């Protein structure tokens, strides 16, 4: 799994039937030592109701199709958890409001 931050939303009014009902979010990975957003991101299906600005755990590849809502759907990234706190070396880098 990858830790990342939700940086935006994606709306697609026309999509493959298998994607109907899925919510899509733009997610960028964050640095494990600083908590800062790193480089580019991915578009991920949201399995947990995440929102912009939240820190999340997401999976890519075949693991992205292992949730109830993404099973057997053509997705390559899925948000699977919303992070409450993120700590490295005893220092809290993120604490959900």
Walk me through what this model shows.
By secondary structure, the chain is mainly β. The chain has a single domain, classed as Beta Barrel (OB fold (Dihydrolipoamide Acetyltransferase, E2P)). It is built from no helices and 7 strands. The strands form 2 sheets. The chain has a 5-stranded mixed beta barrel. A two-stranded antiparallel ribbon has the order 6-7. Strand 6 (85-88) and strand 7 form a beta hairpin. The model has no long low-confidence stretch (mean pLDDT 93).
Keywords:
97 residues, mainly beta, OB fold (Dihydrolipoamide Acetyltransferase, E2P), five-stranded mixed beta barrel, two-stranded antiparallel sheet, 7 strands, elongated
How would you describe the shape?
elongated
Helix content: under 10%
Output the radius of gyration. Answer: 14 Å
Overall CATH class: Mainly Beta
- Tally of alpha and pi helices: 0
Ends apart, CA distance between termini: 23 Å
CATH superfamily (homologous) name = EutN/Ccml
What CATH calls the topology is OB fold (Dihydrolipoamide Acetyltransferase, E2P)
Q: Give me the secondary-structure category.
A: mainly beta
Major sheet: size, sense and barrel closure? 5 strands, mixed, barrel
Low-confidence stretches: none
Tally of structural domains: 1
Number of strands: 7
Overall pLDDT confidence: 93
- Secondary-structure element string: EEEEEEE
CATH second-level architecture? Beta Barrel
Strand order of the largest sheet: 1-2-3-5-4
Strand content: 35-45%
């Amino acid at each position: 799994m990858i830790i990342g931050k939700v940086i935006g939303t994606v709306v697609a009014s026309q999509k493959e039937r298998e994607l109907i009902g899925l919510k899509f979010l733009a997610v960028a990975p964050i640095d494990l030592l600083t908590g800062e957003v790193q480089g580019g991101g991915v578009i991920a299906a949201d399995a947990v109701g995440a929102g912009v600005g939240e820190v999340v755990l997401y999976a890519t590849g075949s693991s992205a199709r292992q949730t109830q809502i993404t099973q057997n759907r053509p997705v390559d990234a899925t948000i699977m958890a919303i992070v409450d706190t993120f700590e490295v070396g005893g220092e809290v880098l993120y604490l959900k409001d």
